[in-house]
């Protein structure tokens, strides 16, 4: 910079040129010194070039030969390379197939299970497929299709299992009648077995009771797997005496669909939906079952079918309760039972009120008791049914009273109202066996002889006993105390005596054209029946084992019934006599203007007195014991005589004082006096 800035530029160039010349001389000197070596090197290099050309030719030749020789090797190596590539691909394919094959196998298995309707295993297979196998091969297209199909398959399983459930519900609806019939047969067998055991306690040790069998079966049921199709139902008692084994619910209905469907819905997380659907459908079925047919009251089979369906329904529900975990619970069943109980009782009240046949009412009662005992055996409370039976008992008593009204009418209508003749000891003992009658004097008399009463006495007495037996039949199996049974029988018997028999006797007494002989015989008959009331008391005491002295024991009103009938008969006798007297008096034809009296009493009066004489002969010649005879002649005959005389005297006075009789002659009065004297005589 100082050179360019200063004025010494020329001088610097000179110095620089001098310096270059010096360097050139040194280079020249150096080259001169090494020139020979350079020449030698060039010479050597030229030699090397020739040798290098030779070497190149040899290498080219060798390369050519190598190329020719290596062509086959290259081809072989290419083939080896392709082979190795294929081998690697095959190995990768095998590995991938190893992952895919289990998926395909599981899918195939799933399809097979779906086809064979094994839906619960199919669901398990689907679960394994989704969570275990498909994630390993999820990038394949067919796997994506499978993944997309899984919800559809689940839905298909749900639909199919729901279809199976609907078939099951339809099946139990159809079979509930048979299931109920079976359960009630078993309850009847159990009751018979209990009766046998109670009568022969020594044989009870060798047999298992039905409840024990059922209890052990329930334990087995709880251990049953969901897939088991051998589910315990209504179990039987293996009786040595029973040739036939009664089938259980599981023999009549296959419960496996409901178990499978329940487990499937549980696995799918829709258990609550399933439970709600099942309960809703069963409620609908319950309402159908509880709807009685309109003609149910006509036959016992109508009631039996109605009860069978109800029992069948609740036996199935009880079975479901004990073989599933929470599909139905006790609260749900109790609610259904409350509804069933109220509807059943309402239906029975309505339909039983149409029934007029006591035999049908009794059969209905036995059927209701069996119905109640059957359901009680499954743990259902049935007290309301027994309370309702006490209501039906009143109706049964009414139907019995109607029936016995007809029986008494037939007996009274067919009676000949004459003492029963006996010709030998056998007939005598037979009648004494039918009616409690003892008379030492009659026993001493030789055959033939006569009882003081007519045939209706032993017949009526036996029918009263039959009525008591009929009342007793209804009280069986009602779990009533002996005092309650005794009270019920006595009240019903009192109604029979005071209402039914009393009305029948009154009708006979008030009947037109009833003769005095018949009326007197009715008085004798009712006296004997009155005496027999104490034997009826004893009879009731013997069958109920309740002493008559017991507090609250109802007394029989038979005495008053027969006394009332006797008084009515007596009144009818007095009335009939007076009517007969009036008929004779209508024949009286007095000539009030006669100048001379007749030589004898009037003909009508002679006939009247003849009639009265023969009538009172009936009273005085009636056979019978001393008491009856004295009663008839002492009371009835005397009262009848007094009544007849009083009525005759009054009527004669009225004849004399009639308004039409305006004047009398002495002859007419003397004739009238003759008639009065004839009456006095």
From TrEMBL:
Coiled coil: 13-83
This protein's GO CC annotations: exocyst; plasma membrane
Keywords: Coiled coil, Exocytosis, Transport
Domain Exocyst complex component EXOC6/Sec15 N-terminal: 15-184
InterPro entries referenced in this protein's UniProt entry, alphabetically: EXOC6/Sec15 (IPR007225), EXOC6/Sec15_C (IPR046361), EXOC6/Sec15_C_dom1 (IPR042045), EXOC6_Sec15_N (IPR048359), EXOC6PINT-1/Sec15/Tip20_C_dom2 (IPR042044)
A Pfam family assignment: Sec15_C
Exocyst complex subunit EXOC6/Sec15 C-terminal domain span: 384-680
GO BP, one annotated term: vesicle tethering involved in exocytosis
Entry's family note: Belongs to the SEC15 family.
Protein name: EXC6B protein
């Amino acid at each position: 910079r100082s050179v360019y800035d200063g004025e010494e530029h020329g001088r610097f160039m000179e110095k620089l040129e001098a310096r270059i010349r010096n360097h050139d001389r040194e280079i020249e000197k150096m080259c001169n010194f090494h020139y020979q070596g350079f020449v030698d090197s060039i010479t050597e290099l030229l030699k090397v070039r020739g040798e290098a050309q030779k070497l190149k030719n040899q290498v080219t030749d060798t390369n050519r030969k190598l190329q020719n020789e290596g062509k086959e090797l290259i081809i072989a190596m290419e083939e080896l390379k392709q082979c190795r590539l294929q081998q690697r691909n095959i190995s990768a394919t095998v590995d991938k197939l190893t992952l895919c094959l289990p998926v395909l196998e599981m899918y195939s298995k799933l399809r097979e299970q779906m086809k064979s309707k094994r839906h619960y295993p199919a669901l398990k297979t689907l679960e394994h497929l989704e969570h275990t196998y498909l994630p390993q091969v999820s990038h394949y297209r067919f796997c994506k299709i499978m993944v997309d199909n899984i919800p559809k398959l689940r839905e298909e399983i749900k639909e199919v299992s729901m279809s199976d459930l609907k078939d099951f519900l339809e099946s139990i609806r159809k079979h509930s009648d048979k299931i109920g019939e079976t359960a009630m047969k078993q309850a009847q067998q159990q009751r018979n077995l209990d009766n046998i055991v109670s009568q022969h306690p020594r044989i009870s040790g060798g047999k298992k009771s039905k409840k024990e069998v059922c209890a052990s079966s329930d334990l087995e049921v709880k251990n049953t797997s969901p897939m088991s199709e051998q589910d315990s139902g209504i179990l039987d008692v293996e009786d040595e005496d029973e040739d036939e084994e009664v089938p259980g619910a599981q023999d009549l209905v296959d419960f496996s669909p409901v178990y499978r469907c329940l487990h499937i819905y549980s696995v799918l997380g829709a258990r609550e939906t399933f439970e709600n659907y099942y309960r809703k459908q069963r409620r609908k079925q319950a309402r159908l079952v509880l709807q009685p047919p309109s003609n149910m009251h006509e036959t016992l089979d109508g009631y039996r079918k109605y009860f069978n369906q109800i029992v069948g329904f609740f036996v199935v529900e009880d079975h479901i309760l004990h073989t599933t975990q929470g599909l139905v619970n006790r609260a749900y069943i109790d609610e259904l039972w409350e509804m069933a109980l109220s509807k059943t009782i309402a239906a029975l009240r309505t339909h039983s009120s149409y029934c007029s046949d006591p035999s049908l009412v009794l059969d209905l009662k036995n059927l209701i008791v069996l119905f109640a005992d059957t359901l009680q055996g499954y743990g259902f409370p049935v007290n309301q049914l027994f309370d309702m039976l006490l209501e039906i008992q009143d109706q049964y008593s009414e139907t019995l009273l109607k029936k016995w009204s007809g029986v008494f009418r037939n007996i009274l209508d067919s009676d000949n109202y004459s003492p029963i003749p006996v010709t030998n000891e056998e007939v005598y003992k037979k009648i004494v066996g039918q009616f409690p009658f003892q008379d030492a004097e009659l026993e001493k008399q030789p055959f033939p002889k006569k009882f003081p009463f007519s045939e209706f006495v032993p017949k009526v007495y036996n029918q009263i006993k039959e009525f008591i037996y009929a009342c007793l039949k209804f009280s069986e199996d009602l779990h009533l105390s002996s005092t309650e049974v005794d009270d019920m029988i006595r009240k019903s018997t009192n109604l029979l005596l005071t209402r039914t028999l009393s009305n029948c006797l009154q009708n006979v007494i008030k009947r037109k054209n009833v003769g005095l002989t018949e009326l007197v015989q009715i008085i004798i008959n009712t006296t004997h029946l009155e005496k027999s009331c104490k034997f009826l008391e004893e009879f009731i005491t013997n069958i109920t084992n309740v002493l008559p002295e017991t507090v609250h024991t109802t007394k029989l009103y038979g005495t008053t019934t027969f006394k009332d009938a006797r008084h009515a008969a007596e009144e009818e006798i007095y009335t009939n006599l007076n009517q007969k007297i009036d008929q004779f008096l209508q024949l009286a034809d007095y000539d009030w203007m006669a100048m001379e009296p007749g030589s004898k009493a009037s003909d009508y009066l002679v006939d009247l007195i003849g009639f009265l004489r023969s009538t009172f002969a009936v009273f005085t010649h009636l056979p019978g014991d001393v008491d009856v005879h004295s009663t008839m002649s002492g009371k009835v005959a005397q009262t009848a005589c007094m009544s007849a005389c009083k009525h005759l005297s009054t009527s004669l006075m009225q004849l004399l004082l009639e308004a039409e009789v305006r004047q009398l002659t002495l002859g007419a009065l003397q004739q009238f006096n003759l008639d009065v004297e004839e009456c006095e005589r």
